Amino acid sequence: MSRVDRFWENAAQSPLQIVKMPLFAEHGVRVYFKRDDLLHPFVSGNKWRKLKYNLLEAERSGFTRLLTFGGAYSNHIAAVAAAGQATGFKTTGIIRGEELTEVSNKTLQYASQCGMKLQFVTREAYRDKIALAADFGTDCYVIPEGGSNALAVKGVQEVMGELQSQLNASFDYLCTAFGTGGTASGLISAPADTKVLVFPALNIQKAEVLQHIETFVELQGKKIEVLIDYHFGGYGKETEELTRFIADFEQQTLIPLEQVYTGKMMYGLVDLIRKGYFRRGEVIVVLHTGGLQGKRK
Ligand SMILES: Cc1ncc(COP(=O)(O)O)c(C=O)c1O
Predict the structure, then answer these.
(1) Exposure string for 45-59, b = 16+ CB within 10 A, e = fewer
(2) Where in the chain is the domain with CATH 3.40.50.1100?
(3) Ligand 1 in contact with 92 (CB < 6 A)?
(4) Which keywords has UniProt assigned to this entry (predicted)?
(5) Residue 112 known to be catalytic
């Protein structure tokens, strides 16, 4: 068995946990959390799912170095650095922002400690990823920003088999945060009567979100809803209300959330429940996509 196989084989499937809050009981909905955040401290959540088949492919094709892209606080950069180190790949991370260094924050420090070679580029240069990949990594296996590609979608789809065996019943909704669309695209393989609820962490129009998803999967005949009102001012933005919500939620449920993705999604879901979006008796599954390495304490 290869090192990549071993790394992914070693983890048990992530737990499915029912979450109890007075509001859920009041509205008669059952909410489950698929705790992918528990899969690994750094290759966590959707990163675990999205990297699996990419690293297997990189290994099969004989690559020894992975190259990828990310912003200063990218969970994806931390995950590629950790997965590369654990499975024997060298790694390069192209980071947006020429003013940054290896010690600018915890994420970059961690990636660097895992042995990732960090290349800091201007925001302008960062836009042309094809040119950057040609400059820095002709012999690298290139993973796109956020890790979203067809192999990532295949990895995310594995959530469905686990849910079927863990829940052993149909569920009405499956919720995810959205950044680049790979995760939502994988979840679209949910049973036809399950509606996928997508919560963008950035200020983006619904049509654009659907376009992103459609670059990976066919949406015809699928039930999907994009909730664009829970971005809190845009990517990486946070308000006191969101901070307070996360602290309250964590205290009540003991499930940690972070401020960039899962906190916003959960705020949105709770708001929808409060507004009566769901019918009594409906079952909602929330995918915890991890990202806790980037959590601001
Ligand atoms: C914690 C977390 N949740 C959700 C997402 C969004 O996933 P995607 O980029 O596949 O839409 C990301 C970013 O990739 C993330 O780091």
Answers:
(1) bbbbbbbbbbbbebb
(2) 3-42+149-294, 46-147
(3) no
(4) Pyridoxal phosphate
(5) no
Could you tell me the distance, in angstroms and rounded to a whole number, from the CA of residue 180 to the centre of ligand 1? 7
| Tokens representing residue 103 in the block | 């010690």
Task: Give the closest residue (by CA) to ligand 1 atom 3.
Answer: 289
How do residues 202-219 score in pLDDT, each as one tens digit?
999 999 999 999 999 999
Q: Give mean pLDDT, residues 235-252.
A: 97
Residue of 44, 74, 148, 185 marked active site:
74
- CATH class assigned to 46-147: alpha beta
Task: Give domain 3-42+149-294's CATH number out of 3.30.70.20, 3.40.50.1100, 3.30.70.260, 3.10.150.10.
Answer: 3.40.50.1100
Atom index in ligand 1 nearest the CA of residue 181 equals 11
Query: 209 φ, ψ to 5°?
Result: -60, -45
**In which band, very low, low, confident or very high, does the pLDDT at 297 lie, cut at 50, 70 and 90?**
low
Q: How far is the CA of 114 from the centre of ligand 1 (A)?
A: 21
Q: Which two tokens stand for residue 267?
A: 């705020």
Sheet with 141-142, side-by-side order of all strands = 117-121, 90-96, 65-70, 141-142
Q: Which atom of ligand 1 is nearest to the CA of 185?
A: 10
